[in-house]
Structure formats: structure tokens, C-alpha cells
Amino acid sequence: MSQQSQFALLGKRRFLPFFITQSLGAFNDNVFKQSLILAILYKLSIDGDRSIYVNLCALLFILPFFLFSALAGQFGEKYPKDTLIRLIKFGEIAIMAVGAAGFLFNHLWLMLLALFAMGTHSALFGPVKYSILPQHLRENELVGGNALVEMGTFLAILAGTIGAGVMMSSAHYGYVVSGAIVLIAALGFIASFGIPHAAAATPDMRINWNIFSQSWATLRMGLGQTPAVSRSIVGNSWFWFVGAIYLTQIPAYAKEWMYGDETVVTLILTVFSIGIALGSLLCERLSGHKVEIGLVPFGSMGLTLFGLLLWWHSGGFPQNVQANDWLAVLSFSEGWWVLFDILGIGVFGGFYIVPLYALIQSRTAEKERSRVIAANNILNALFMVVSALVSILLLSVAGLSIPELFLVVSLMNVAVNVYIFKIVPEFTMRFLIWLLSHSMYRVEHRNLNQIPEEGAALLVCNHVSFVDALLIAGAVRRPIRFVMYYKIYRLPVLNFIFRTAGTIPIAGRNEDVDIYDRSFQRIAQYLADGELVCIFPEGKLTTDGEISGFKSGMKRIIEETPVPVIPMALQGLWGSFFSRDPDKGLFRRFWSKVVLVAGPAIAAEHAAPVDVREQVKVLRGAGR
């Protein structure tokens, strides 16, 4: 389990060319789209309401996601992904040539045609973009890879938006924009040749060219995955619903509530994009290099909190005789509060979205991954269209102000995510585990690569506190089925976590023979299914900090289902609040370092309880 920085991926051929390719694509999308919008608003001779054409641009770009995402999902599984990316990027050059002609001759309909084609390009690229990552990255690199992709995408969007404004300010904007979009497309095509081979997942698939029936089938496939995956897709689309509302309203908010000019819009977009990038990058550090869906509730809470703060801090902004530029906004304390809220929304948006993408990728079968991501793209587009309708309804019909719209969206965020977390309690369980291991203790992991990446194994650990299972679950990437004393299993609050994790309650034979027998049946079944099972063979919490003798239950388990035994030890928990130290206190050993260490696997035939106990004692050492 390498703990190297996610930025190390930028030095690897299996990631860097892809990263450059997708970032250039996002950059070009926004250079062209923003330049077209500015041309409509300020440069072209247009009869009638120009805002109609601006809204038409939004429709033309998002419509291909409805129409072609299902086809894109099939292409991503039938053909090698590296080849498909090169074909798509070559198509971008042709599309941008059409767009360049539109700018050179001030031909609006050529520009709109190119915009629709670029939307098609993005719809085709999306499923390949996210489904290729699990083929080229190891599991402990997946969160870091997704974080870099999200960072690159949002910074490319920001750079494209700003770059378009700079280029359109030129007297010869047609030549500047035309040359830039074709050049960027060509650079993306060249970069794509560095992407390593990514074999087709289902080369014998028959393509269904009926976009309507296949779109419905793709949506059903995506939402028919396991609850964790299907609700992650819904949560992902909800993020784009919320994000689309914020991004759409920022220009009007800057003008009407901050009395700002165009530079204030750019400032807000910059802060928002930096926030998303920062949150995405922090995800890997906070998740410990693994897919940690416990960050999703954390991100959801932050989105609501900072959305409420943005509503609270809106209003009372000083109005000058002329519009405020970005420097004037920074001279007011109200401006700093608003930017702080925008930054918070971005950071917690990164915490929310990156683990969801990583979970969808890691828990979807390779032969279905591209289509599941295509389903996500279709749903994203649908949610973004609905967000526009909701904004119109609340602002124009209900008469709400923009800050009040932000308030409603923040409250809606609570309702939607409570629903998701109720349906999939694993999110809440992982959040509580993550919170515990990042608040009361500083958990250090050693040699956890001794735990196999797949296949059954029996984990054996000393038992020091009521939260041992939570700390182990938070440290190990694979799901673990814990065996624990039934009275601890029934503890309030913790019982919710234990039940959600499939914990096995056990009682002494003389206490409840039914619970005793059922527990061994479930252990045998979990091991037969290739899962990890963790036991605390002392049978009770230590009362003096030392390791008691191991019970005979461990011997029965490996006799019934011979699997490798992994000795483990917890250090630093004795004396903490959740231990049975008579001198413990709430703040004694608070934020102290806890170490979880694993030893080499022991074959079942050599795993006598007395010998395994000695191994656990050696691993624990002198630190109780």
C-alpha cells in the first residue's frame, strides 16, 4: 500500500497523457462555448432577444448527453478505450475547424452546429474518461486519480472561461479564437497517443443503435446496480443539480447583490474552481488512499452549511456610483465573507463528488462500467435541465431572490441526502467510522499490505476498547465482517454501525447456545464466500491492558474453513475513553496516536491459538 502523493501519478505514463488529453478537452469546450456566448452578446449582428440564443447554446451543448450517452457507453465497452479516445479527439479537430470557420466569417449557425458537435464529443468522451481509470490505476490510486481529474477539469473550465474573455477582447477575435480552438484540439489529439492500451471489456457486444430504447436500457442498468452504486449515481447527479444552480446564478448574483462588473464574476468563478480543486485534492489525504465514502456525508453537510452562510451573508453590500470591480469587492468585509462561503461550497463539493465517482468505478463490473457511467451522464443532464426549470419556477413564478434560491437549494440538499443515506446506511456508517478515526485518535497503519487484496482470511486482533472494530474497519480497504460479543454488538448508536457492516454477534455457549451456533455458521459462510472475517479471540475486553488467553473458537473456525490467519495488534488504546481502564477519562489520551499493525499470514495448519497469541503480543510490543 504505497502512501505516495497523488501528484506522483502525474509522472506516470499510465496517467499523465490521459490527464493532459482530458484537461485540454475541457479547456477547449469552455473556450469555444464562452467565446460563442460573448460573440452573441457583444459581437454579432442579431435581431431579437440575444438571451434566447444564449439559452439555445446551453440546450445545444447538453442535448447530446441525452441523445448519445447510451451509444457512448456501448462504444466504451466494445472497443479499446485508448483507440476510442484517439478517434474522439481527432473528431474534435474537425469540429473545431467548423467552429473556426464560424468565427472567421461571423456565421452564427456554423458556430451553433459546432457547439452541438462539441456536446456530442463530450458525451462520447465521458464514459471512456471515467471507465479507463480503473484499468490503468491501482485501487489505492483511484481516489487520487479521480481527484486530479476533477481538479484538472474545473481548473480547465476556469481557464477556458477566462481565456475566452481575453481572446474576445481582441480587435481580431475571429482569428485569435479560431486559431486557438484548432490548436488546442490538435494538442489534445497528439497527447492521446501517449495513453497506454486499454483493452475492450466486451468486444463481442452488439451495438443497439436505437438511441431511445438504449438510453432507457442504460438508465435501468445504472439504477439497477447495488444500492451503494445506484444511489451514488443519484448523489452524483444531485451534485450537478446544485452546482448548475450556483454556476448559472453567479453572474446575476454578482451584478445584483454585489453590484459588481464582469471581473467580479470571474473572481467568484475562480474562487469556486479553486475550492473544488482543493477539496478534490484533499480527498486522497483524508481518505487514506482508499475509496472512503464516509467523506460523502461530510461533503453534504458542508454544502448545506456554506449554502446557508451564503444566504446569510448576502445583502447589505455597499453600492458605489459605478459598478464594483474585483478590487473594490475585496475592500469590503462583506465581499470576503461571500468569497469564503463560495470557497467552502467548492471544497465540500470536492469532498462530496470525488468519493462518489471512485465508488461507482470500483464497485461496477468492468463489462458494465462504461454503460453505468453513461447512465450517470444521462441522469446528470436530466438533473441539470431540471435545475434550470426549478430556478425559473422559484425566481420568476414564486418571486424568490437569488439568495433565497440558495437557501431553498441548501435545505433541499438536506432532504435529498437524508434519503440517500437512509436507503444506503453504509454512507452514514463509513462517516461515523471516518469521524472517529480522524477526531479522537490519530490512527497510524503499519504493514496492512499483509492483508490479501482478495480472497478469504481470518484477522485476529487483541481487544482493548469498544471501538476496536471501527478503527480496524476504517483502516482496511476491504470490507470486514467482525465477530464480537453480543452485548457490545447491542450498544446504542454503535449497533447501527455493526448491523450495517454485517457484524456477527456471538455469545458464550453457556449464555445462549443459539447465538453461539448461528455465529459460527455465519463465519463459515462469509469465509466460504471469500470475505475477510475479524475476531477478537480473547472473548472480552482487556481489564488490565494485557492480552488474555485466546479462546477455542478460533480453532473451530479454521478447522471448519481452513483459511490464512493474519495476526494484528492495536497499540495506544489502553487508557482511552472507550477502554476499561479504571483511570480513564474523556480527555485522557485524547488525540493520542493509535497504531494498527499486521503481521505475515499464518497457514491454517500452523495457526494454533497459543502461537497466534504470541505473534499478536510481539506485534503489540510494549505500547498498550
Any overview of this molecule?
- Helix 4 (108-131) crosses helix 14.
- The longest helix has 32 residues, at 366-397.
- This protein is 64% helix and 6% strand.
- The protein contains 22 helices and seven strands.
- It has helices at residues 16-43, 50-78, 81-104, 108-131, 133-136, 142-168, 173-192, 211-223, 227-256, 262-287, 295-313, 326-330, 333-362, 366-397, 402-423, 425-437, 468-475, 486-489, 494-500, 513-528, 553-560, 609-620, and strands at 441-446, 457-461, 480-485, 504-506, 532-535, 565-571, 592-598.
- It has a seven-stranded mixed beta sheet with strand order 1-7-6-2-5-3-4, with helices on both faces.
- The model has no long low-confidence stretch (mean pLDDT 85).
- It is elongated and about 90 Å long.
Key structural traits:
single chain; 624 residues; alpha/beta; 7-stranded mixed sheet; 22 helices; 7 strands
